[in-house]
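[job 0412] stage=complex_fold ligand=6-diazenyl-5-OXO-L-norleucine status=START
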Amino acid sequence: MNFKEIIENIYENVKQVDNKGDLASYIPELANVKPDNFGVYFSTLDHNHFGIGDYSEKFSIQSIAKVLSLSLAYHLLGEKIWERVGVEPSGTAFNSLVQLEADKGIPRNPFINAGAIVVADILISHLQNPKEEFLAFVRSISNDSEIDYSSEISKSEKEVGFRNIALCNLIKSFGNIKNDPSDVLDFYFDLCSLEMNCKQLSELFLFLANDGCSLEKNKQLISLSQSKRINALMQTCGFYDESGEFAFKVGLPGKSGVGGGIVAIHPKHYTIAVYSPRLNVKGNSYKGMKFLEEFTTKTKLSIF
Ligand code: DON
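[job 0412] stage=complex_fold status=DONE, emitting structure tokens
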């Protein structure tokens, strides 16, 4: 299949589409990007790579980092992790507080903010220097020492993170946060501030297409079963209350972030990263969703 030609055609079509949606402005620094940036990068396990548009423009991966923090916490804790966080789609917004009260502080899944805050707490309990060790884990996956946090983005989010502060305190009141909430939030905001471009993002996520094994160093980072389960969670919970829509229209496990990035995975085959910072009302990249829908339609390759 000529992936390059397919990607070029879809890119040109989607580029012309009226770019609906708005930049995420609830984190002030996130609005500090060119709204019409649009990049795509595609990587296969057999070393077929192709990028188009603004694929080397760095952006804040935000919630996409929740897949990486879950990977490390799952590797460290094993199945015990599911005593602290669920595996059900939430059907609510990524930053919603409503279910937590009824669910007694056990977040529905690790990809909503509440779940990722619990995962951050788990990492703090297991790592000596969570911020450094998490970054080292991320860098080691793709052997890319350029990947880093953005202090501007994390500072900006720390100044306005009232909803996440509320979530963390509510979970703490049920006993499902073991550390000081301010340390947990500090780490959570740092991990959300990771920056990279589409090429780095697509290459980083190849381990989830490759049964948990890093392509770069042929090292098993998480087990085969863990890799399958993280893909299953991305399929069912990766797009919050738009996860059903993404499964229906795109048909791949994936994860979005309010920075405008989306990464999607075809297990045993490829990853594709799209960046376009204008978001739809659910907080997912408007053009990113459109591009990926066209991509799995034209290639006829989805997991279904
Ligand atoms: O906690 C937040 O609100 C952000 N740091 C991350 C949210 C996010 O990326 C949700 N994505 N669609």
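The first strand starts at residue 39 and ends at 44.
[job 0412] exit 0
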